[in-house]
Design goal:
By secondary structure, the protein is an alpha/beta fold. It has 12 helices and 6 strands. The chain has a 4-stranded mixed sheet. Strands 1-2 form a two-stranded parallel ribbon. β5, α10 and β6 form a beta-alpha-beta unit.
């Protein structure tokens, strides 16, 4: 996650609603239009089922308050607008309480195709479909619970499991690789790249490898992990994830696959 943001958080009113300008709603509508066909082609069934359940508006930014009512009925989760950037401690704590922190701003036209930090389109279009699935919602909560027990030095290791599954995970369905992660669903360029490009590696899902794999927030990934069965992911909720983190720390990071020296989350 970047250490600073050029965006300013928008503040909800007393009812929990946020006013977005006509231009901001137009950006949402154009992003939705840009992704609508692609997600149907490239995203995994679990995401598409969730998107259908939520029936998000296509022409304006959804209200977090209204969406929370829907999610509460489905999985007991809510969506809470937060400042553009929050720390790992706050992030994990909110997940543990089944509250998803949503950056309240929407990207500019300049950042339309790819944005380093999460915006409201990423948070809602990307994340909430999986949060409407009880199994993925429970896994996200388990990550949060582990994070509340973690030390500062553990955060950057634990977040890799979230990054390479909920954010940028892939899934093999009927022999075909599909995108599963929220960061892919909300990116007009990386969604197609993650599934079709010859550039990135696509390795089998393995928790120890994932915890030791560097990632970047400012460019498309050079490697992804593929779930053959979502139950592999859900079973991790029963593990002592901090024990896994500490084992990964002993083994150390794997070689960096990126072309530059600066690596995120070391």
């Amino acid at each position: 996650m970047p250490k600073s943001s050029k965006y300013t958080a928008k503040v909800a009113d007393e009812r929990g609603h946020i006013h977005y300008t006509d231009e901001e709603n137009a950006v949402w509508a154009d992003l939705y239009k840009a992704q609508e066909d692609n997600v149907q082609t490239y995203m995994a069934k679990e995401y598409l089922d969730g998107l259908a359940r939520l029936e998000l508006p296509k022409d304006k930014v959804p209200s977090c308050a209204d969406l929370s009512e829907r999610l509460m009925d489905l999985t007991g989760w809510s969506v809470q607008p937060v400042p553009a950037l929050i720390g790992f401690k706050t992030f994990f704590s909110m997940l543990s309480e089944r509250v998803f922190p949503a950056a309240s701003f929407i990207r500019s036209r300049e950042d339309f195709d790819y944005i380093e930090e999460p915006d409201i389109f990423h948070e809602i279009f990307g994340h909430t479909p999986l949060l409407s699935d009880k199994r993925f919602a429970a896994f996200s909560q388990s990550i949060g619970e582990a994070g509340t027990k973690a030390s500062d030095k553990d955060y950057a290791w634990l977040i890799r499991l979230y990054w390479f599954s909920i954010e940028f995970g892939l899934s093999r369905q009927n022999g075909v690789i599909k995108a599963l992660g929220s960061g892919l669903a909300s990116s007009p360029t990386e969604l197609v790249y993650s599934v079709t490009s010859d550039i990135p590696d696509r390795d089998d899902f393995d928790i120890m490898t994932i915890l030791r794999t560097p990632y970047r927030i400012d460019m498309h990934q050079m490697g992804y992990f593929v779930l053959d069965d979502p139950e592999i992911l859900f079973s991790l909720a029963e593990r002592d994830l901090l024990k896994d983190v500490h084992e990964a720390q002993k083994l150390g990071l794997l070689p960096n696959k990126f072309p530059e020296k600066i690596v995120a989350a070391e």
